[in-house]
Design brief:
Length: 75
Amino acid sequence: MLQEQIETIAETRQLLKAADVAKILNISQSLVYRMLQRGKIPSIRINQSIRVDPGDLQQFIENNRSENETFSIAE
């Protein structure tokens, strides 16, 4: 579902607002703003507005994907 949503957005080439990014990543909007300020997610500034290119968000997701990582509750 998430992949389909991102691909659909990427096809339209519509820039995303912080609220859109928060919804896609299922995190708070304030966390998105902190990540944008720190440069973890590339952004585009238009006057005082901050936008994210869907392709950049997709790349961020791919770069931060955990592969074959397992967690153990008991040690």
